[in-house]
């Protein structure tokens, strides 16, 4: 029998806070349990930094533009309406069919999940945990560990994949708030109970165990309403609070996690049947250069758009850059075309592999941006223009959940959102600490354990955790 896999998904826990608590020894149980295990201090998440993109990445080793998981919402050009996974769309239906046979769910039979968005495996729905999450109650930690332990004991699934969400409390109290610290501390206190149940179910340490956060968050205090912005500019955008077909619209704007903006435009002549294309975006009839128009807004840091099949432009108020991809060498190049560097990279411009880009940028302000921005445009569901919110800003819309106060958001490209951590242990996992990886590398490690290295080799995931 193959080694069982247990994925413990902490939703929206800021990586820097967790790592600080772990390294300072505040998380005694985790430190002890993972003493012989593997620790990644900077695990770069998937852009956009929302659970949909991270889950698609972890189960397949691909980025959001390839899995089609650009967030909980997108605008469908075909249906001329906003599609939302909580209401009128299903993530498992949109997940790229070409990758379906190459996911963790395909590799590992008999899995049970709790809190997943892409419902491919058997899903346990815990309404009490859902309520705790919505109320921002820390009881969610105990409840999730209790039920996960029960599932392990009773069902012994080959893969147990469950979330414990700190999303609400991060949004409401702030990314490094006392509430989030207490959440992490509580997780550490209760973790031994889960280990006890797993040891009992699978045999002492005889399973692959991963603990990670899907993305972080960024503190915000100001909001830019993108549909209202489009209206002010004379567009007729799809209304985000009524998911209905609207033939008369000529644009749509929405955010995911509130800090990535996706903007869609009808072709000025052919309407929604055709994408406007780069030239039109930079010279839209009656409006001019849409990218330049957008980055004039204080709440927008960068605007991205696909130039052609092999390049994507990066525009900020101060300058413009271009990302190019070469399929023969599988390398990317980024260079500043005018003004100052919109990504503040200060890296010599040359062709580099995905691994080289990760190494060069994981500790920068916008980790892994070159590789991940290029790849997000591969899906139809992506906007014609993608926006990254400026520091302190998000794209919250008035219809959105009325949080008492919204102190942090995510979805964007900042380090605070992009960088998390991974803890791993198991029979083949080596004892080591490494400086960086991608979150999707978890996929490569599991695939290698299941003798499916070739599947991971076709993806962006890299195996780093196993003993040689
Ligand atoms: Zn969230």
Shape descriptor reads globular
Question: What fraction of the residues are assigned to beta strands by DSSP?
Answer: 15-25%
**What is the mean predicted local confidence, pLDDT?**
96
Which runs of at least 5 residues are low in confidence (pLDDT < 50)? none
CATH topology of the largest domain: Alkaline Phosphatase, subunit A
Tally of contiguous helical segments: 18
Radius of gyration: 22 Å
Instruction: State the helicity in percent bands.
Output: 25-40%
Number of domains: 2
| Associated small molecules | zinc ion
Q: Can you list the strand order of the major beta sheet?
A: 6-5-7-1-8-19-2-20
Tell me about the biggest sheet?
8 strands, mixed
Per CATH, which architecture of the largest domain? 3-Layer(aba) Sandwich
**CATH level-4 homologous superfamily of the largest domain:** Alkaline Phosphatase, subunit A
Structural class: alpha/beta
Strand element count = 20
CATH class category name of the largest domain: Alpha Beta
Report the span from N to C terminus.
21 Å
């Amino acid at each position: 029998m193959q080694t069982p896999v247990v994925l413990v998904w902490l939703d929206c826990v800021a990586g820097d806070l967790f790592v600080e608590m772990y390294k300072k020894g505040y998380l005694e149980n985790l430190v002890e349990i993972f003493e012989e295990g593997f620790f990644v201090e900077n695990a770069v998440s998937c852009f956009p930094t929302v659970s949909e993109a991270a889950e698609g990445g972890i189960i397949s080793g691909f980025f959001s533009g390839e899995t089609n998981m650009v967030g909980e919402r997108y605008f469908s050009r075909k249906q001329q309406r906003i599609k939302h996974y909580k209401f009128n769309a299903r993530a498992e239906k949109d997940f790229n069919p070409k990758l379906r046979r190459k996911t963790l769910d395909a590799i590992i039979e008999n899995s049970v999940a709790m809190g997943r968005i892409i419902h491919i495996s058997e899903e346990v729905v815990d309404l009490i945990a859902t309520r705790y999450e919505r109320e921002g109650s820390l009881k969610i930690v105990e409840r999730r560990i209790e039920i996960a332990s029960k599932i392990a004991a009773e069902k012994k699934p080959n893969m147990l994949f469950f979330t414990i969400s700190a999303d609400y409390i991060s949004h409401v109290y702030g990314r490094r708030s006392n509430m989030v610290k207490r959440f992490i501390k509580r997780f550490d206190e209760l973790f031994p109970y889960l280990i006890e149940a797993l040891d009992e179910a699978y045999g002492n340490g005889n399973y692959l165990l991963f603990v990670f956060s899907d993305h972080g968050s960024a503190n915000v205090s100001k909001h830019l309403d993108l549909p209202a912005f489009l209206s002010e500019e004379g567009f007729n955008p799809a209304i985000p609070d009524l998911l209905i077909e609207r033939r008369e619209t000529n644009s749509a704007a929405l955010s995911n996690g509130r800090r990535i903006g996706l903007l869609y435009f009808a072709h000025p002549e052919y309407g929604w049947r055709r994408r406007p294309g780069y030239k039109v975006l930079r010279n839209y009839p009656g409006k001019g250069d849409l990218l330049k128009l957008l980055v004039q807004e204080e709440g927008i840091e960068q605007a991205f758009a696909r130039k052609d099949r092999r390049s994507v432009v990066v525009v900020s108020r101060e300058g413009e850059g271009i990302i190019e991809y070469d399929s023969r060498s599988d390398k990317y190049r980024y260079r500043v075309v005018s003004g100052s560097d919109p990504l503040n990279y200060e890296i010599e411009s040359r062709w580099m592999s995905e691994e080289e880009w990760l190494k060069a940028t994981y500790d920068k302000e916008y980790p892994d941006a070159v590789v991940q921005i290029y790849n997000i445009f591969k899906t139809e569901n992506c906007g014609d223009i993608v926006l990254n919110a400026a520091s302190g800003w998000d794209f919250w819309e008035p219809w959105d959940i009325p949080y008492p106060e919204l102190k942090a958001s995510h979805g964007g490209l900042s380090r605070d959102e992009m960088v998390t951590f991974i803890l791993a242990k198991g029979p083949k996992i080596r004892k080591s600490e490494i400086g960086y990886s991608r979150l999707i590398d978890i996929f490569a490690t599991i695939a290698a354990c299941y003798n499916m290295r070739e599947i991971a080799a076709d993806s962006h995931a890299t195996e780093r955790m196993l003993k040689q």
